[in-house]
C-alpha cells in the first residue's frame, strides 16, 4: 500500500514539474513576444536614426572638404614675421622667386599660423593659406616641387590624415611591386605597371603580333578604399 502511494506521489510530482516547466516556458514566450512587439518599432526607429546620422555625417564631411578645397598647408617657413601682412608678403616673395607665380592680395582669403606659439620650440608652426579661387591654389600645387625652403600639402582633416597614414604601408608595398600607386584624398589608387611584364614577354617570344596584342591591353586601375 505504501509503495502504491509512493508511486502515485512520484507520478504527481513529475506531472507537476512538467506542468511547471510548460507554464514557465509559456510565460517566458509570452513575455518575449510582448517585448519583441514593443521593441520592434524602437529597433526600426533606431535603424532609421542611424541611417540619417550616417547621411548627415557624409554631408558634413562633404561640406568640410569643400571648405578646405581652396586651402594649402605650408611647412618649414621660419617664424620671423611680426604681423599677418608681413607673413603674406613673405609667402608672395617665395611663390614669385621659386615658382614664378605672382600672388595678389585679393587672391588670398586668409593666411595665419596654426597652433599656439611656443618660444621654447625651434620648429616653426605650420601656416594655413586659403585662396579665393581654386585655380590659383592648383597652380601652386602643380609646381610645388620647385619650392626650395618650404613644402606644402593639401589641407586635410585629422580623420583623413589618419586614414592616409594607415594606407602608407600598403602604398609602399604597391610601389615596391613596380606599380604606379598614390594617395588621393583618403584612398589608395593603384595602376598596374606592365613594363616588366612586356619585357619578359619580349624575351620569351619575338613575335610582333603577340607583343603588339599584349601592349594593347588596357592598364588596370584599382582603388583601395580607406581603412576605417
From TrEMBL:
<feature type="compositionally biased region" description="Polar residues">
    <location>
        <begin position="214"/>
        <end position="228"/>
    </location>
</feature>
<feature type="coiled-coil region">
    <location>
        <begin position="39"/>
        <end position="66"/>
    </location>
</feature>
<keyword id="KW-0175">Coiled coil</keyword>
<dbReference type="InterPro" id="IPR004244">
    <property type="entry name" value="Transposase_22"/>
</dbReference>
<feature type="compositionally biased region" description="Basic and acidic residues">
    <location>
        <begin position="192"/>
        <end position="204"/>
    </location>
</feature>
<protein>
    <submittedName>
        <fullName>Uncharacterized protein LOC111352198</fullName>
    </submittedName>
</protein>
<feature type="region of interest" description="Disordered">
    <location>
        <begin position="192"/>
        <end position="228"/>
    </location>
</feature>
Amino acid at each position: 500500500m505504501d509503495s502504491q502511494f509512493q508511486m502515485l506521489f512520484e507520478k504527481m510530482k513529475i506531472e507537476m514539474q512538467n506542468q511547471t516547466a510548460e507554464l514557465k516556458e509559456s510565460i517566458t514566450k509570452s513575455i518575449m513576444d510582448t517585448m519583441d512587439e514593443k521593441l520592434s518599432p524602437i529597433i526600426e526607429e533606431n535603424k532609421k536614426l542611424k541611417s540619417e546620422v550616417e547621411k548627415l555625417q557624409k554631408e558634413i564631411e562633404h561640406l568640410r572638404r569643400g571648405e578646405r578645397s581652396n586651402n594649402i598647408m605650408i611647412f618649414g617657413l621660419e617664424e620671423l614675421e611680426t604681423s599677418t601682412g608681413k607673413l603674406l608678403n613673405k609667402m608672395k616673395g617665395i611663390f614669385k622667386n621659386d615658382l614664378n607665380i605672382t600672388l595678389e592680395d585679393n587672391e588670398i582669403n586668409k593666411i595665419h599660423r596654426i597652433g599656439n606659439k611656443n618660444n621654447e620650440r625651434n620648429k616653426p608652426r605650420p601656416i594655413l593659406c586659403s585662396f579665393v579661387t581654386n585655380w590659383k591654389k592648383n597652380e601652386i600645387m602643380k609646381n610645388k616641387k620647385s619650392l626650395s625652403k618650404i613644402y606644402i600639402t593639401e589641407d586635410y582633416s585629422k580623420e583623413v590624415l589618419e586614414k592616409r597614414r594607415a594606407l602608407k604601408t600598403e602604398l609602399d608595398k604597391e610601389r615596391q611591386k613596380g606599380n604606379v600607386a598614390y594617395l588621393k584624398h583618403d584612398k589608395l589608387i593603384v595602376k598596374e605597371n606592365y613594363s616588366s611584364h612586356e619585357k619578359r614577354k619580349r624575351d620569351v617570344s619575338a613575335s610582333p603580333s603577340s607583343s603588339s596584342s599584349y601592349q594593347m591591353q588596357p592598364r588596370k586601375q584599382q582603388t583601395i578604399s580607406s581603412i576605417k
